[in-house]
Amino acid sequence: MIPDGRTPVFVVTGFLGSGKSTLVNHLVSREKDSLVIVNEFGEVPVDHHLIEAAQERVVALPNGCLCCRLRGDLEETLIGAAMRRRRGDIAGFDRVIVETSGLADPGPVAQTLFADQALARDFKLGPIVTVVDAADAGGRSSAAAIARAQIASADVVVFSKLDRAPDPSTAKAEVESINPQAALLEARFGQLDPALLTHPKMGTYPIFRAGAPHASSIRTFILGFEKPVKRELLERFLAVLVELRGADLLRVKGVVALEGGQSVLVQGVRHVFDRLRPLEAPATGLVFVANGLGKDEVAALWRAMSTLQASAMSCQKM
Amino acid sequence: MFLNMKLLAHHTLNGFGGMGEGMAMQLARDGRRVLWLAHESAPKNFTAVDVSDPRAPRVIAQTDLPHAQMRSNSLEVAGDLMAVAYQVTQFGLEPAGFELFDISVPEKPRSISFFDASGPHSRGCHQLWFVDGKTVHMACADPELKPHNPKDDQIYRIVDVSSPSRPRAVGRWHLPGTMQGDDAPPPPRLAPKFDAGFRAHNTNVYPERPDRCYLGYLDGGIMVLDISEPSRPRLVSRWTNSPPYNGFSHTVLPLFERELLVVSDESVMDHAADWPKLVWILDARDERHLVSIATLPAPPLDAFRSRGGRFGAHNLHENPPVPGAWKSDQVVLGTFFNAGVRAYDLSDPYAPREIAYFVPPAPEGSPAGSVQINDVFVDDRGIVFTVDRHAGGLYALEMKL
Q1: Which of A5, A48, A233, B197 would bridge A38 by S-S if both were Cys, CB 3.0 to 4.6 A apart?
Q2: What pTM did the predictor assign?
C-alpha cells in the first residue's frame, strides 16, 4: 500500500444562515485536532466569533468571498499552517475544516487543492459538506445558481434545523434531484457524529437512480468501464472533456481500474482535475454531476476516443 | 508535535527512562507481547514491558548492571533467547562482550552464557544483531587485535550460538589499516572535531541474503560484506559520505525487492554541531556500485538545533526478520533525537516524503531540556514504540496512515 499521509481539508459550505457555523462548532468540539479556517462575505468578521473552541487554531479570513477573491489567502494560510506545524510552532492537526462564505461555490477550494502542487504535498481534499436548511427552501431561491452549485458539489449533505421544518421532505427532494449521489445526514442543533463525515455511506442511492428528477439542467450519472483502461487514454479523455465542457463539470469523482492492475482516484471540479492518484479500492466508474451535459454525450466521447485509439494502434502495427 | 501519529501510552519505566538502542519484541508462549528494552546507561541493564495492550504497558522485569562503568545499550530477541551487549567505559574493564538469557518466563530472565570480549584494548560490545537463534553478528572488540587508534577497537564479529551455553567466535572483519599487523596503510581520519573512529556499528543480516552483512562503520561509511564463509568475510562494496560530511554511519537497512539501501548517520553532538546528519537512500541494483539518490527530508535545522540536546538522524526500524515485527519496503521510520520519531514514504525513492511524526514534550528530568528520541520498533499491529535517551522511557504510538 502506498501511504498518503496528507491532511484532509473538509469544506463546509451552505447557504447564508443554513447553520454552517453551528455545525463547525460542533465538529471542533468533537474533533479537537482540527484547524478551522473561517471565511465571511463582507467587512465584518462575524462567523469566527461563533467558533467557540480551539481559538488559538482558528484563522479567520475576514475579507471577501473565499471562492473568488481570497483563494490566494487560503493557499497561504494552509501552506503557512503546514510550515508552522513542521517547525513545531503549533502542535499539529489531523484535519482542516474550511467554512466557506454562504455565497461561495465550494468548487474553487477543491480546484485550489488539485492545482497547487505545493499545497497538494501536504493537503488533500476531504469531504465537501453542504449544510441545507430544511426549513428554508425559499431562501435558497434568492441565489439559486450558487445554492445548486453547493448541493451539486457535495459529498455529504447535512440537513439542519429539522426541528423547525414543517415538512423536510421538500428540501430532501430538492437535494436528491440535484445530487442523488450525496450522503444525506441530519443534524439537530448542529450535532452530528463527525465519523459520519469521514466514513459516510456513499450516497443515499448507491447506484444512480435512473429517471431521477433533476433540478434545472443539472445531471448526475455514472460512466462505467467494462474493462481496465489505458492511463494515457483516460488522461486524454479527461483533458478533452475539460476543454470542451469544463465549465459544466460541477464534480467528477471515481475509482478507475487501469491496465496493468493499478486503480486510480479521479477527482475534478470544473476545469481542474487532481492528478491520477493510485488507490487500492474497487473500481466505481466515474460519477458526474454536470450542468447541461448528459451521460449519452460523455459516453459517446469515450467510445469515440477509445475506438480511435484502438484503430491507431492497429495501424501502427501494420 | 504530531502528524498522523497519536500517543497511546507513555511509561517512564519506574523512573529509569534513559533508553539505549536495543528494542525487541517477544511473542511469549502465553500469548503476551513483551517488549525488551536495553538501557542507555547504568544502573539498569534491561527492562521487559508487557505491551499486549499498547494503551496500558506494564513493566514485568527490570534488571541491574553489575557496576556503573558499563552499559548494555543493545539487545535482540530470537524466540525465547535474548542476547544483551555489554560495553565498558574504559579499556580492560569487565564484563565486556554479550550475555545470553533464557526468557521463556519473561518475569525471570535466566542467564545461559557469557561471551567474553574483554581485554586491554577492548571496550566490549556496543551493538548486536540476533534474529535466527543461531548466530550473533555484532560490533565488538576482539582481544586478539590491537588497533592503531583506540577509537577503532570495535569490529564486525560473528559468534555461533547454536549451542547457547557455548558461544563460539567464528569470524571477524575490520577496515583494513586500522589494526596493528595490517599490511594496509591507516585510513585518513576525519578532522579531530569529528573523528569518532573507524569501527562497526549496526551489523544486519537478513534471510533474504544470508550471505551478506549490511554494516555501518561510523567514519568508514558503510560496507556490504560477503559472509558466505563466516570465517573469512570479504568486502563487496563500500560507500562513504565523509568527508565532506561528518562521519558516524550507523545503520544499513536493505529493502531487497526495491533494490535500495537506507543508510542512517548518527548525530552525536548537541545543538547539531555535527550537522548535517541525514538518512540516505542508495540505489543498490548493483551492490558493487552503490549510488546515493536521495536523502529523507530533514526537519528544519533552524527550528530544532537550539531546542536542546542532539538533533539529527539516528536509528531506523530495521524490518527485523522475526515474528511480531512490522516489515515494509514502502515506509521507513527513523529517530531524530529532539525532532522525535518520523515516518517517510519511499514509494518514489528519488523523492521521499515525510508522512508522519511525533515529538513528545521534554520529559521531566531530562538533562537535555528536550526529548531525545533514540530508537524505534514497530510491531506487526502497526504500533510504533519509541524511547527517550535520558528520562522519558517508552512511548507507544498509533500511526494513522
Answers
A1: A48
A2: 0.88
